[in-house]
Structure formats: C-alpha cells, structure tokens
Amino acid sequence: MSVADIQKNTQLHSLGYDGPCPVCGFHLKNPTYNNCPECGHELKLVIESPFRMTAWLVFLMGLIASIAICVNQICLLMVGVIMNGSNIPWRFLFPELSALLLLFVATAVWRLLFNWFARRSKTTRVVTAFIGCMLPFAVFYVEVVFIVLLR
Ligand SMILES: [Zn+2]
C-alpha cells in the first residue's frame, strides 16, 4: 500500500461516512479501506459539479441531431438507389453531402468555442439554446424542400 493510498484511507475514515456503497448498496460505516468489503468497488473522494444542461450543450446536441438527419436522408436515398437499381441521384445527394460536411465543420468549431461561449450574455445563451432546439427541424424541412424543388 502506497503513501497516497494510506492518505486516501485516512481521508475516507476521517469523513466518518455512514451510508451505502454507491455500487452494491452494502452499508459502509467509517470505511478504513479504499474498496468496498462486499463488492470490491474502489471508493473515491471526489468533488464534482452536477450535470448542467447548458445552452452550449443544447446547441451541440442540435448539431449532432442535424447530422443524424442528414445521414438518415443519405441512407434513404441510397436505399432507393439499391431498391430501384437506378443511378446515384447526385443532384439530391450533393446538397445532402454538402450540408453534412457543413454540419461536421460547425460541430468541430462549436467544440472549440466552449470557453468563449460561457462568457456570453444570458440572452445570447437562451437564444442559442432555442436555435439549437430548432436546428434539426430546420435542417429536415430545408432538405425536404430541396428534394421537392430538385425533382
Ligand atoms: Zn459495494
């Protein structure tokens, strides 16, 4: 047992924890080891922030859902090609692939903007979250309109 392990043991014990193991529910009272005696799960002292659904995350999810819609449309187009034995409809596929590429680039850029976006005003964050919620719907209907116009 290393010095760090002994220090961790001391911390767990000194907390006077009296409650269930987070994995198996075995009752722990002032645990003297880093592992649950019942299931062996490693017990750790952690300080973590609770999960927050931030505007940044909502917008990221909107981008990811939009990518899924594009991939779905491309797959449906290719199913049609396979089922009918027809040629690849590039006039439909090219806008889909362009939108997909644009969404991938936007997602990569959005990931880099995490810290910058955290400093934006509340109004900007609320509007961005709303746009993130609406983005998959907008992408879907713009694609539908494109397909109808390109027929
Ligand atoms: Zn356990």
List the helices and strands and how they pair.
Elements: H1 3-15, E1 18-20, E2 27-29, H2 55-84, H3 90-112, H4 114-118, H5 122-150
Antiparallel strand pairs: 1-2
The structure holds zinc ion.
Zinc ion (ZN) binds at residues 21, 23-24, 26, 36, 38-39, 41.
Compose a concise summary of this entry.
This protein has 151 residues and is mainly α.
Structure explained in plain terms:
With 151 residues, the chain is mainly α. The chain has two domains: 1-48, no CATH class; 55-150. Helices cover 66% and strands 4% of the residues. The chain contains five helices and two strands; from the N terminus they run αββαααα. Strands 1-2 form a two-stranded antiparallel sheet. A hairpin with a 6-residue loop joins strand 1 and strand 2 (27-29). The protein is elongated. It starts with a helix and ends with a helix. The relative contact order is 0.12. Zinc ion is lined by residues 21, 23-24, 26, 36, 38-39, 41.
Mean pLDDT reading: 89
| Residue fraction in strands | under 5%
Terminal Cα separation, in Å?
Answer: 71 Å
Low-confidence stretches: none
Order of helices and strands: HEEHHHH
Number of strands: 2
Helix content: 55-70%
What would you call the shape?
elongated
Number of continuous helical runs: 5
Rg from alpha-carbon coordinates: 25 Å
**Major sheet: size, sense and barrel closure?**
2 strands, antiparallel
Structural class: mainly alpha
Unique bound compounds:
zinc ion
Strand order of the largest sheet: 1-2
Q: How many domains is the backbone divided into?
A: 2
